[in-house]
Amino acid sequence: MIMTQENNEAPVDALHARINQLEQEKNELQGLLERNKARDAKGNFLHLLSHELRSPLASVNSALELLKEDEVGPLNTNQGEFLEVAINNTRRMIKLIETLFDIARFENGQLRLEKQPVNLKSLLENVLNAGVRADFETKKIDLTLEVPSDLVVEADSRRLYQILDNLLSNACQHTPYQGQVTVKAAHQRNKIEVSILDGRSALNEQTMAYLTARTFRLEEFMTRELNYSGLTLTITSCLLALHRSRLRAENRQDGGAVFSFELSTPNSKAPIFRLGKAV
Questions:
Q1: Are 137 and 254 in a shared domain?
Q2: Residues 61, 94: contact at Cβ < 8 Å?
Q3: 142-146 and 277-278 as β-strands: parallel, antiparallel, unpaired?
Q4: Same domain (yes/no): 63, 126
Q5: Cα separation of 155 and 243, whole Å?
Q6: Alpha-carbon span 112 to 91, nearest angstrom
Q7: Per residue of the chain (279 residues), what is the pLDDT tens digit?
Q8: C-alpha span between 72 and 2 (Å, rounded)
Q9: What separation in angstroms does the CA of 74 have from each of 89, 90, 181, 256, 279?
Q10: SS3 per-residue string spanning the chain
């Protein structure tokens, strides 16, 4: 059998193609390893940062609370007002650090849920009574709840509390003085849809683009929203992702914005979580 030059070149071309393919796969694998290493480094940094800051701030907060209770002597009116500002900002910093800690745990795959049936209206009232309602009253914002008392969702009660607290605080922060905020919840097919309508001017394009994306990219959002509000929306999105849900947002035609998400209903007759206890 006589081998032509064309026949001799065919195996060589195939070998070159295979070598190029392997080189491309090697580069892709190296890129993946580098991204994973950077992600782990960031997660470890956030964990270390939150751990090192939490203890000192907790001590500061305890000392301020002792001053508030007149444990070291009475305070005059001005001193009491300054002390209240210090306590509120210390609590805000502690909450921010806890958020950083949760983001680090999420990135490292260490954030886990303990789902159970949760009465939505009861948990929402718990969030409001813990201090959020006072924030609305300070700004004289009209807060309306349109949530049936018998709605039950399948969720991690502690994390759902965090989600509602973040979204309500965000709505209060961005709604003007004497504005209006409405919380709605209703059955949508086999899920419960929760919506929070606020009175802000409008959502910015960057936040809208991220929240309406088809895929969840924590890294992208972290680089876009480097502020306290952005961090709370980040961890809210993380927690909803663990619940197999997604935070959606849109600007309303009549003004303001609406944040919404869906949660599954219970598939079992487990005890229902209501205000910190099972009933």
A1: yes
A2: yes
A3: unpaired
A4: no
A5: 7
A6: 25
A7: 455 555 555 665 666 676 777 677 666 776 666 666 666 666 566 666 666 666 777 777 777 777 777 766 777 878 778 877 787 777 777 777 777 777 777 777 777 888 999 999 999 999 999 888 988 999 999 999 999 999 999 999 999 999 999 999 989 988 999 999 999 999 988 899 999 999 887 777 766 665 655 445 555 555 554 455 667 788 888 889 889 999 988 888 888 889 999 999 987 444 444 444 444
A8: 104
A9: 22, 21, 38, 44, 43
A10: CCCCHHHHHHHHHHHHHHHHHHHHHHHHHHHHHHHHHHHHHHHHHHHHHHHHHHHHHHHHHHHHHHHHCCCCCCCCHHHHHHHHHHHHHHHHHHHHHHHHHHHHHHHCCCCCCCEEEEEHHHHHHHHHHHHHHHHHHHCCCEEEEECCCCCEEEEEHHHHHHHHHHHHHHHHHHCCCCCEEEEEEEEECCEEEEEEECCCCCCCHHHHHHHCCCCCCHHHHHHHCCCHHHHHHHHHHHHHHHCCCCCEEEECCCCCEEEEEEEECCCCCCCCEECCEEC
Cα 221 to Cα 42, 209, 210, 215, 251, distances in angstroms: 14, 10, 7, 11, 19
* 278 to 116, 165, 220, 241, 274: CA distances (angstroms): 10, 21, 39, 25, 6
Residue 128 CB: number of other CB atoms within 10 A?
19
Measured in degrees and rounded to the nearest 5, phi and psi for residue 189 equal 60, -120
**Same structural domain for residues 83 and 183?**
no
**Domain at 195, CATH number:** 3.30.565.10
Q: Which two tokens stand for residue 157?
A: 């009660």
Instruction: Say yes or no: 152 and 242 in one domain.
Output: yes
pTM of the model: 0.67
